[in-house]
Write a structure and sequence with these properties.
about 425 residues, 23 helices, mainly alpha, single chain
């Protein structure tokens, strides 16, 4: 109880999460008489994680992709293919977000990139700004479920699970979520006219460019270096050519070659800027991981996961019901907490509980990331909403209301994944025997 009270008080002061976790742990160790050597050893072991190299590597890959023109090439290809579709722009937006997620691994970055293109296009096509912003924001959340995914990397480190298996586990749920979001958009446009001023007649007036085989091949050829980057990154992992850590490092060198010598869009100053940006981001994450490990040790010493497990077990004897309760609790926490903080704090608490229920830790990682996706869409800290509202030029209140049907869709898919774990585990078992 005192641990929770101390943490809440510190969080209310507005201090960074890693400071709150560290101070709470320090107060506990000083007042409980527990040896400070345990805290020091835990701090060191928390950052002495080989897999953290992958986190830093993928952060650098994202920065170098932008500097090397790889990201721009992929956007250009997506725009060219989008111009050939006469289906709804809302569906095209979600599909584009799913494709772009394979490059960024970030929800807000996907919204900013694809939303920057598609939200103005939807508004010109007479979709309401609130609907356009909601579509892009919800589609952008796919960025952390479809690999590569930084939250999967962090979960793999904290839970000591295979990152490659986690990446594979996110593919089918990510595609399922993209289909579900597309269906939701179609239903809203067809049955709820207040979401759009758009009509089929108006859409047919839009200037679409017919796609011939030659034009399609030309668009793909122009984006060849971007597409090969995705193949190199993900294909190399799934084919067993290299580990996720090695994949990140190989892709870094590939980006440097493309940017410096092929596209020639990058110079040494850009490389320095990418390295500096990566250093800032990874430094923050490493401090968060270190304090998170200490806080997790504190919880273990106090027996909190065990006590929580006994309390939850008293609610119901049905493992599915217990897992659903945990998931909706995590959705609530995700409304207020940042994704990495959630993973670092909650994984040590809930993972032992769900594993006693027979839940596969890889499957639990997928469920965890889906709850984090919902957190991107819920105020007051929904990062995707802030990006979407700025592009669509609407208020936070407006976009928060408009995104509610998509949140419901995420919740429905979350329940489906809870009921049918094979959806998450099919590919990992096929590829890695997980």
């Amino acid at each position: 109880m005192m641990i929770a009270l101390a943490l809440v008080v510190l969080l209310l002061t507005g201090l960074p999460i890693y400071v709150c976790l560290g101070l709470t742990s320090l107060i506990f160790f000083l007042t409980s008489g527990t040896s400070m050597h345990i805290m020091i050893r835990t701090l060191y072991s928390g950052v002495d994680q080989y897999a953290l190299i992958a986190v830093t590597g993928f952060l650098l890959v994202a920065s170098l992709f932008e500097k090397a023109g790889i990201t721009e090439a992929l956007i250009t290809m997506v725009k060219r293919f989008m111009a050939a579709f006469q289906s709804g722009l809302a569906v095209i937006t979600i599909v584009s977000c799913a494709i772009f997620a394979a490059v960024t691994g970030s929800g807000p970055a996907t919204v900013a990139t694809i939303g920057g293109i598609m939200i103005p296009a939807m508004i010109r096509a007479k979709y309401t700004p609130k609907f356009a912003g909601a579509v892009a924001s919800s589609g952008g959340a796919l960025g952390i479920l479809i690999p590569p995914s930084n939250p999967f990397l962090m979960y793999g480190i904290i839970a000591n699970q295979s990152i490659a298996a986690l990446f594979a586990a996110g593919i089918v749920p990510g595609l399922l979520m993209a289909v579900a979001l597309s269906i939701t958009s179609s239903i809203l446009l067809r049955w709820f006219p207040n979401y759009s001023m758009h009509s089929e007649r108006e859409e047919k007036k839009q200037a679409y460019k017919k796609m011939t085989l030659l034009v399609a091949l030309k668009a793909i050829w122009q984006a060849k270096w971007a597409l090969f980057a995705i193949i190199l990154l993900l294909g190399g992992i799934y084919a067993g050519l290299f580990t996720p850590i090695e994949a990140a490092e190989v892709t870094i060198f590939y980006s440097l070659i493309v940017g410096l010598f092929i596209n020639r869009t990058m110079n040494l100053k850009d490389v320095y800027a990418a390295l500096a940006n990566t250093l800032r981001l990874s430094g923050t994450l490493i401090i968060l991981v270190a304090t998170g490990f200490v806080f997790a040790r504190l919880l273990t010493l106090e027996g909190i996961p065990q006590a929580l497990g006994r309390s939850i077990a008293g609610v119901s004897t049905d493992p599915v019901m217990i897992l659903l309760i945990i998931m909706f609790f995590m959705v609530f926490i995700g409304t207020w907490a940042e994704t990495f903080s959630q993973i670092i704090v909650l994984t040590p608490i809930f993972l032992p509980v769900v594993m006693k229920l027979g839940v596969d830790p890889i499957h639990f990682g997928v469920l965890f990331v889906v709850t984090a996706e919902i957190g991107f869409l819920t105020p007051p800290f929904g990062a995707n909403l802030f990006v979407g509202m700025k592009i669509a030029d609407i208020s936070l209140e407006t976009i928060s209301k408009s995104v509610l049907p998509y949140i419901l869709t995420y919740l429905i898919v979350l329940v489906i994944l809870v009921l049918f774990p094979q959806i998450s585990l099919f590919l990992p078992r096929l590829l890695f025997g997980q």
